[in-house]
Write a structure and sequence with these properties.
The protein is mainly alpha-helical. The chain has one domain. The protein has helices at 4-15, 32-44, 60-72, and strands at residues 22-24, 50-52. Strand 1 (22-24), helix 2 (32-44) and strand 2 form a beta-alpha-beta unit. Helix 1 (4-15) packs parallel to helix 2 and helix 2 (32-44) runs parallel beside helix 3 (60-72). The N and C termini lie far apart (29 Å).
Amino acid sequence: MLGDESADYLYPCLKLHENLQILKFNSLNLSLLDAKAIGKVLADFKNIKELSLENCQLNQLTTKEIADGLMRAK
């Protein structure tokens, strides 16, 4: 589980890898802050071609945050 405190570090850590193409967050219980960080990464990193959230415990709010990031990526 990433947890609320990890969201503060998720984006800065991923930002160092500007050529990311695949994100895999499988079997995690993502918090709302984690989902916001993932959404920000999706919006800012234009090279990402694949996102895997298999077996993640997503709810309506976390799904919305990730989808918002996808929409901003257009």
